[in-house]
Amino acid sequence: MAQSPRNLAQSPHTQPALAQIRPERVALVHDWLVTARGGERVLDALCELFPQATVHTLVRAPGIASPRIEGMRHVTSLADRVPGASKRHRWLLPIYPLAIEHLDLTAFDLVVSSSHCVAKGAIVRPGAVHVCYCHTPVRYAWDRTDDYLSGSSPMLKLARPAIGLAASWLRNWDARTVGRVDSFVANSQNTANKIKEFYRRDARVVAPPTECAQFEAVDRTQPGGDYDLVLGGMVPYKRVDLAVRAWALLPERQLVIVGDGPERLRLQQMATPNVRFVGRVAEAELAGWYAKARMLVFPGEEDAGIVPVEAQAAGVPVLAFGRGGALETVVGGKTGYFFDDPTPEALAKAALDLDALAIAPRACREQARRFDRSVFLREMADCVELALEQRSQHR
């Protein structure tokens, strides 16, 4: 029987350098804990790998995360003292670099950051090892600033000049703090390429964890379904608006949108009657929504993306924009279909093209198993072990 991932991190026979780290002297640093999305699933897996670690976050909304995360020791930054911080965390961006630098990590020999914003800039004590699991270099500072400034709310229009200046300052800070990380781990080759371009650093790729068994339980042996599905946060870069406009051209098909976010009201106002908004659902309910879906529609460019893997684990094909991390998780013509032109017309046509392929649920599930949680835990333990060994060799 294969050894469990947790034992991999603790057994001196398989991970000698990691076994020498006292479990309570491990810190996990995560940007914020105010939602339960893909980044928090990575954090949950890291908490399994390091169950006696202390979790450090900028801002935290207690009770929002998984039971495993909630059961850890928690430390929050000075940003968490701002009234209403967990509900307005996006507006606190200008103080986050200062807040992350003021986290006290002097008691820890190993720091593993889970970073899509500033967590990678945490300051560790001399001699400690810092491994950064990078979801993306800060999107709104490097390559996706326009996506975050493109909303139509009056408040955003007033704040746009200040946000632009903050993004420029954050980009400079982000570049200056690259040296605080001993080893980068990227969630996809797409992200590894950005780390190379923006940070001038190499990164090993470890795909985010997917609970394949949870979704494989879906009773699906033949292609088909009752509706097309979009699942995820409603923020501009995810391009849910593109799906809403495309399904206006497909009035005979139903589109179900599961999730929530600042774009929801605008999307509901533009939607046609065949588009249904469900809102946020519990983790335990996700498999049920995949079960009756004809396809998952993934219209934005993501750095990696757990949702397409979940869909495939449930035997559901994926219709994805042909850029970013989806190219690494979906096999065109076998487990899904790609569209290249980000227009409603191209997306609507691609939905019909995917229908004609009759993708086999079994092929989807086999592809998803390559990204199972057990794979993440094993490979992440290996990355930490390598970083510790390299630090030891340079002493």
What report would you give on this structure?
The structure is a single chain. The protein has 395 residues and is α/β, with parallel strands linked by helices. The protein has 2 domains: 5-209 and 373-393, 3-Layer(aba) Sandwich (Rossmann fold), CATH 3.40.50; 212-371, Glycogen Phosphorylase B (Rossmann fold). The chain is globular and about 65 Å long. The protein contains 17 helices and 13 strands. Helix 10 (240-247) packs across helix 15. Strands 3-2-1-4-5-6-7 form a 7-stranded parallel beta sheet, with helices on both faces. Strands 10-9-8-11-12-13 form a 6-stranded parallel beta sheet, sandwiched between helices. It starts with a helix and ends with a helix. The longest helix has 23 residues, at 154-176. 38% of the residues lie in helices and 17% in strands.
